[in-house]
Amino acid sequence: MAILIKSEREIELIRESCRLIALVHEELGKMIRPGISTKDINDYGDELIRGYGCIPNFLNYNGYPASICVSVNEEVVHGIPNEHRILHEGDIVSLDAGLIYKGYHSDAARTYGVGKISAECQKLIDETRNSFFEGIKYAKPGYRLFDISNAIDEYISKFGYGIVRDLTGHGVGTQLHEDPQIPNFKQIRRGPKLQPGMTLAIEPMINMGRGDVEWLEDDWTVVAEDGLPSAHYENTILITDGEPEILTLLG
Fold first, then answer.
1. DSSP conformation letters of 68-107
2. What's the pLDDT score for residue 108?
3. How confident is the model at residue 54 (pLDDT cuts 50, 70, 90)?
4. Sheet holding 104-105, edge to edge
5. Nearest one of 156, 240, 230, 154 to 200, comparing CA atoms
6. Do 167 and 205 form a contact (C-beta atoms < 8 A)?
7. Which residues does 158 contact at the CB level (< 8 Å), separation at least 6?
8. What is the distance between the alpha carbons of residues 149 and 146, in angstroms, rounded to a whole number?
9. How confident is the model at residue 251 (pLDDT cuts 50, 70, 90)?
10. For residue 1, is it within any domain?
11. Contact assessment for residue 150 and residue 163, using Cβ atoms and an 8 Å cutoff
12. 3 with 180: CB under 8 angstroms?
């Protein structure tokens, strides 16, 4: 496992890439409401990214056909936007997106409620987000990579939710996916030591029911096998000499 340590120049470029995708997410979040299609979300996201002079890094990545991953209800990740997939009151929708700024990638995800949602769905969204913040308490020198994984697992498991094990977080830099892989569940080993200059995408993917998933026939959309809702929360972070810097959150 070769985890790249970024130079100050690289960190500045990644920081700007991340700031821009945070702005994109902020605008996309404002448009979530009943009656819009998942394609509407994708088209607006693509327009925003290109308006910043950047390239959507998901588009054509290993053949993925859109700029924004839009996953509804039991869809965990990699939902393909479609003009016929309309959001309805009570749905939850996860948006996963990144961009390339001067050769450097960013990656972030958020889950939103569509109109009024159930208390159960709101709790799933909230606790998935909370598990990210529990994990990054250990994202600093003196700890090891899988201390983050273990903290996410320890926090989320007490709610009876299922942690998706088939997909993980990852490093980010000149490639969208770099080493290391960062599971959201407990590991036997502690993993490599965390060092300043590492840029990592931490992304809990949490199912209301079991953690088992399957791929649909489009070979992209990952769904909860039991059909219950799933939530996703992701930020790109920087390991520093002290507390981690969350690069894809605004101010």
1. SEEEETTEEE-PPP-TT-B--TT-EEEEEE-EEETTEE--
2. 98
3. very high
4. 55-56, 99-101, 104-105
5. 240
6. yes
7. none
8. 5
9. confident
10. no
11. no
12. yes
Alpha helices in the chain (DSSP H): 8-30, 38-51, 119-135, 145-157
Residue 145 domain flag: yes
Give the list of residues 6+ apart from residue 44 with CB closer than 8 angstroms, or none: 27, 28, 31
pTM of the model: 0.97
**Residue 190: CATH number of its domain:** 3.90.230.10
Q: Is residue 144 included in any domain, yes or no? A: yes
Residues of the domain holding 137? 8-246
Q: Which amino acid is at 228?
A: L
Domain count, the chain: 1
Is residue 115 a part of any domain in this protein? Answer: yes
- What is the token pair recorded at 140? 């600093």
Are 163 and 147 in contact, with CB atoms under 8 Å apart?
A: no
pLDDT tens figures, 147-184: 999 999 999 999 999 999 999 999 999 999 999 999 99
Taking 90 as the threshold, does the pLDDT of residue 27 lie above it?
Answer: yes
